[in-house]
Every structure is written in C-alpha cells, then in structure tokens.
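yo

u said u wanted the structure for the complex thing, so here. seqs first:
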Amino acid sequence: MNNTEVAIIKSSSPSEAITEGIEKLGGISGFVEEGDQVFVKIILRMPGGFPVNINFDTIKTIINLCKEADAKKIFVGSYPFDRLKTDSVAKTLGIQSYIEKLGAEFVFLDDQNKFPLKSVEINGKTIEFPKVILESDKLILLNQVSADPLFECTISLLNTYSCVSNQFQKIQKNVRSGKDYLHLDQYKQDLITNILDIFSVKKPSIVINDLFYFLEGAGPFIYKDSNLKCTNLVVIGNDAVAVDLITLRLFKIDLLNSNILIEARNRRLGITDIPNIKLIGENLEDTRLTVDFCASKLEDINFKNTYVKAGRVCSGCFKEAYHLLNLMKTHMTKDLKYIKKQSFLIGEKPPKPESLENIILFGDCAIESTENREFRKKIVTNSKDYLETAKKKLKKDFKTQDKTKIKEKVNKKIIELSGCPPNRFDCLNSLISYYGKSQVPNLFFLNNLIKTYYNQETDKKN
Amino acid sequence: MINHIFKENWLKILNFNSKVNIIEDPRELKENVRIPLTPNEINPFLLYRLFELLYPKFINDQQNILDIVISDFELDNIVFGLYLYETTKPGIHARIKGLPKDSIEIKKEDLRNLDALFNKIQLIIQKDHGIKVSCIRLIKKRAIDLMNSHCERFTKSTYYEFIQSLLDIIQITLEQELIFIYPEPNILRFLKSSIALLEGIKLSKIFEFIKNVIPSFNALFVINSNNLPILLKIKKENTISLHPEIELNLNLLESEKYNLNEQNLLPDLKALQIDFKTDNVINIDQSSLLTFLSELFEMEVPPSKEKAQLILQKLLYGIRSYDLYWNMVPKPIIANTLFRFLIRLFGINLNLKKLSHWAIPDFIFGLIDTYIGLNANILFILTEQRNKSPNSNDFMLVRIENGAINKLEYINDKDFLSKVDQESLESIRLSVSENFGFITTVFKVDKFLIKAVLSAFIINFHKTSLFSILKVLKLLKKHIQIYPEIPPYTLIKNRRGFSLLKDALSIVIDKHEF
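structre next:
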C-alpha cells in the first residue's frame, strides 16, 4: 500500500497549480491544522530578480492557504547566500512588508536576538538550527526549481540546506588518508552528507517544487546563457525525497543519476521507489520535459578571448568557477574585448595556457600543481641596439657583434585566485587589481554594485 | 461614400500622377495637394516621389491594387465598393476604376482565410479585366466613416487636435481590424502588434504625454539622398494656451541652391538654417534611415530580448555614426576636438563617435535581468513636480516575461487609485500588487526629469556638454525614486556625480581612439 502521494499539476499559473495540487492531495487541512505554527521555507539567495529568489505570487498562495486552515502563526524565511545579511536581501526585494501585508511574518534568521538558535546533534556534528523552524508545527518547503551546476536541478533537498547559517553550510577540505580527494569527489560527498544531515533534522509537511518557470541553460542565477522556460508544471507532495525523485524524472533523470537521492535512499530519508508513490495529476510517463541544463564541463562555457583549461577539479571549485565564468561572460562584454587573451586554468595539473599573458589560476589545486610549470617563467632576451648591430653587420665585423643574451624571469602575468574553492565575488577584486580599472570598466562597475550588498574580503594583491 | 474633401484631393493626386510621365519637368507644376488624411499641403511631385520610394519598400513592391470597401455586418455579399488601381509603377496610384460591386462576392467568413480570398479575387480580376492584382486592401465601412469624420474635423481644428484625431483613427482601425491588406506588409503587422501590446493605452494619450514633456523646438530634418532629398520642418512652440503650436512641413530640397550634387552629398546646412529660420538642421542619410525602419518593422512585437538588443545596438550605431550617417548645424559641442581634449585632461572621455554600440545593450540588459529579473512587473509612476495632487500621477505597468516586454498597461481605475496611499512607494506597491499581480519594482519619475533629459540630450543636443550631463545626473538623483531599492539605484544614489560620470563613460565610450 503506497501512502506517499505526489501531485504533478499542469496549470495556467503557478498559484493555480499549487492550489489545485494541494486540493488534489486532500486539501490544506490535511497538512496544516487549526492553531498550527507554520514555517514556510523559501529561496532567498541574493538581491536579484525572479527566478533567483522565490516567486512572490506563490508565497501569497501558500500564506492564504495556511490562513484558510486557521494556522495560528505563519513564518516565512531563509538564510541567504554566504556572507549576505538577510536584511540587505530583504531590502532589495521589499519582501518584509509584502509578507506582513499578507498576514505572515518575515523572519530574519540571522537576527539571533529575536530568533535564537538551538544546538542539534547530527552524526557527531553540532549544528545550530533556528528555534523558530524547530518549534514550528509544520514546515513547508516552497522551492523554485532551476538548473544547477552540481545537482542538475535545485531540488527541494537543496532548499533545506539554507535552514542553517552559512557557517554550517561551508564544506571544509578534509582529505582522508589514503583517499584521493579529487577522484572520489570528496567535496560533493561531504556536501551531500551535510545537506541530508540538515534535512533529517526537521521533515517538511508539504514540499512544493515550483518548476512552472524553469531557468534553463545557466542557473540558478541569471546569466547570459539563462533562459526562462515555461513548463506550466508544479510537483507537490509531503515527502521531499519522493517529490524530488518525481521532479528529476520529469527531466528524464533517474535515481541512479542523482547522487543526493541515492544517498537519501541509503539513509532511508524518503521514498525512492516510484511504484511506492501514488501519482496524482499529470501522467509521469507522458510528461517529459526537455530543457538545457548547466554546462557540465567548464570548457563548454565559451566566451570572447578566454580559454578555459581544466585539470582534475573538485565539485567545490567547479561550482565557483562555473559562476565566476558565467559572471564574466554576462557582465564583461567590453572588458573581454580589451583583455584580448586570457587563460583560465583550474584544477589539478591543468593543460598549458594559450599564451604567457593573463593566466588566471583558479583554486589551490591549480596554483600548487603548476608551481614548476613552464608558463611560470618566461624567457626574455636582452635589449639590443638595433642600429649598432646593423652598422656592425654592414662592416662585416662579426666578432664584435653582440650575442643575444637569454634570461629566465618569473612570469608576473599570472593571477592566483587562492582557496578551495575560492569565493567568486572575492575573485572579482583580484581581477580588477590585476587588469586595472581602465581595462575592465564593466567589471569595476559590477564590483561596485556587488559591494552595495555583499561583504567582500579585502583584496590580496597579486 | 467617401468624404468630398478627401475624394477631391485624392483625385487631384491621381490626376497629377497620371501626368507625371508626359510632362517634361513635373517639378515645375505649380499645383498643391494635401497629404491624404492631413491638412498638410505638399508639392504633388514630392508626394509622387514619396509614394514611389516608400510604398514598394514598406507596403507592396508589385503592381495593381484592388480596394474593396466591405460591410461591418454579416450580409450575403459584404462588398460595398470595388476600386481597381492599375499602377504602372508600384505604389503610384494613377488611374482608378470603379467596378460593379456584385462582380466579386465576399462573405464575412472569407476574411478568416485571406490567402484563399486573394487567390479568388486575383482570378476574377484577371478573367474580367486582364490584369493581375498584386495586392488587395479591404476597408470596412466603419473605417471609411472614421476617415470621413476625421476629414470633416481637421479642416476646423488646430494641428494638435488633428494629430490626436489621426492617432485615434489609426488606433481604432488597427485595434478593431477595420483594414486588411493582403499580402500583409510588415509595417501593418508591426503597428497592429504594437497597439495590441499597449493594451488599451491610447496613442493620443502618449502623444499628449510627449507634447507635455518636449520643450519648444524648431528643427529642420534633411532626409538626404542623391535621388530624393527631403526637408521636414518640425516646430513646436509652447504657448500659454492649453495646446502648443505645432508646425510640420514637408518639402523637396532644392539641390542646386544648397550645393547638393553627386560629388557633394552634404548640402549647405547653414544656408538651410537661415532660409528655413530653424534652430537646428539635422542631416540624416536617407538610405540608412529606411534600412533601419525596414528592419524595425520586420521585428516581431513584443520583441524577444535578443531582437530588442539588436535594434538598440543598431540605433546606437546610428547615433555614433556622426559625420557618416548624420550631422547637424550647429555642430554639437561634444563633437568638438578641442572640447574633448580639454575634458580628457580631467579624465573624462566623451566621444560620440566612440559610443560603444556593441557593448551598451549587453550591459543594460544584463543589469535588468540580474536585478529586476526575467519575469517582472514594473510599475512606473509619472509625477508632476508642479502638480502636487496625487490624482495627477500616471501609473503605467510594464510586464516583462523572459527578459522581454510582454505587455504595457495604463492603470486608469480612478476608484482604485483614490484609495491608494500615494505618499509612500511601499504602500503603492502593496496596493497595486493586490490587484495587478506582484509588483517587482516601482519607479517614480518626475516629468521634470524627463523634460530635462530630452532637452539636454535630444532637443539641445548641440549644447550637450560635461556640465549639462552632470546637471542631469544631479536631477536624476533628485527626481527618481525606486522601491525596493535595487543595487544599481543604491550605487547611483551614493556616488558623487563626477566619479559616477567617469565610470559610466568608461562603460559607454570605447577606450581606444583608433
């Protein structure tokens, strides 16, 4: 007997799809009871337009449904992207007043005086979890699905990760003895373990994967290659793993192709067998979506005057490099023309650069594994007095002719972006100080824009 | 059926057109006709040449046209009148022949398949009259009625009222599909879809807005070509009365007088300025302008993001091509080498000919996508500094889908607007969001700022200097408000004008001189 239900709803608007989906799953009263305190976990990545953050019309629908079920209190919130304050994101989105007008409360999770944290032990780790989430009777995951460079799609399990602060999201490089960090992609494994640890703390009552508008091509932020595809679909259920499994199946991604769902299955965090899921609404087999996912190889992110060369890369560096390269492609049109040629080397033992000029070494692996490489040095010849040499040649005075002296010098046309992984926004500072403001006017402007809301680390001169 | 003023004028035009080939120098004929549907008198030869130039380019480049006046209602045969033009040159209407209205039978449902209807009519005309029509124009009786009342009105009204009336009939005709042309020209499709995009916003209202924000000016445009150099004089003079005085004249440039010949494609602009008593003379290359317009009309409306970027790129390329595709008298200060050299000493690189047409659209669209979003509803509130009454504010909603404008809506619900607390942008956003879907961003712009921008960068372009740009930047900070405060606005607000200008110029102007 399968009591896990997942609804695949096709409709003319995301709000209608959500309302219809919840109705088909038995109505909101089946999930939220009278007097419940509800926490709606949304996506709040950074200042930016839809679909970087959540669809505001769908939040309205969810809040209205909870009010319909006579929920006592409705909280809405999320931790934003690393080093960003909820306050600065909320201000640029104007979300607080909007939520309040709807009759809910927007939660500044990083305000620990108002919303204290509670220590939770998971797998030998202590994680500080917001009390407001733990103490809420019901947790609703409202997730915006977009293309993602590491997990194909931003499924709801990833959404739960931002229930905790960035301090607990960070993956420390932990090389296990006798194990190849890169080969095993230890970063991704640790990341998946962490995500599932956090997910296991508080299971959601309703999970909504809103893929009505799917950001394809390049995501989950908006880049030049991004395209918003209208699929008219929303997937809803009460089991996050099952909802994610069905969502991925819509994109023709099987369980075996999703590391995070396999791990979720191993840890028995939800249903991962489709026959055990009761599907409602659209027929899964008939509803298959064809979308463009993110570039799976960094070399595939092509843009003017830039040659990307990758060695063995960990997922952490891959993700940050993916975002940095897309930022460059989107916002540096003019700069890329001025730069003329640059090589972007990433990972362990990357191939040799296109030229000895403007070499960007991204990440500790690239920096350390290329320390003795040829391109680190350049051969310079002594400066010649061409007039004198010509005169001597005319006199056929071969003996006195200067012999060209060859010297080896350190190639200073290299930018080292250290870290494992380096932070994409901190890298912008290093690029500006290397190229100079006049060579990268677009990047300089973008960096100033980012500084208005993002706390960059002070620049380390190359 | 048709208004006698219109009919008389149209027959006069046809009569002239039929004589053009037999007269030695048609330019010398001292006749005057009016441009159809306007009070503007024009040399009939110029009108002839304009039809010869524009009709094949924008409407149809084949010969013989059939006009069919049809009923608005369901009848056994909706044909009210048939008029056949045998054109020896495409677009040149010289001979009109009224055909018996029962010679072609059309039912209302036939209009759903214009392709089949056209083929049927073409066969009938070929059989009965031995000519092949290349184009049919179906005009509903209501369109004729509208034209008639417009023609009655414009003889008694001011030029401003005439333009409003013309825009109204264009809008009604296109919105209610009162005219069909088969094969449908790009310009008609473009206009129809542009009007559909406006979602009820009246063209006359847009014109009124433009009229209010444009300061007085008196300019002469030379639409220049070796073949057909045209002079278009536009004058707008703000008066103390409600409506400004508008003057619009079309003339043929006298090539010999202004030293225009095959070797010298640049007429004597200074002499033109004196003779036509205008503040500025703007010389524009005709063929580039027509190419741009033709590409614009080919565009789907609403345009995709890529198309909009491409059109913006072409427009910017046109602007940067000073001395190549256009020039003007008085010469713009920013085109002066000494001026540029002096401001360069202060680190300001202002060079019109180095406008980064290739990079600006990417930059603008990149910022909009990132900080506004791919799907967004933007509310524009146009305020008037002098008029403090909240009811004087105009509310315009721009709906964006996948990074491209999808719909424009004018919020006109007086009851709703009277209930909105217009003091705070936050409360406006919340109230409008309730009725019109979530409003992503609210832009409050004062008309004074729009006037200042238009004056500094368009009307008085020749006077644009470093100081006028800095002044506009200062006004920009004062007269524009954005809620929620998106990062580009925060940056503009917090930066000093001079350093902001330096940064902005490094983005919009190419670094290298050569």
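Chain A touches chain B at residues 47-52, 56-57, 60, 91-94, 97-98, 101, 213, 215, 221-222, 224, 226-228, 330-331, 333-334, 337-338, 437-438, 441-442, 444-445, 448-450, 452-453 (CB under 8 Å). The longest helix of chain A spans residues 315-331.
cya
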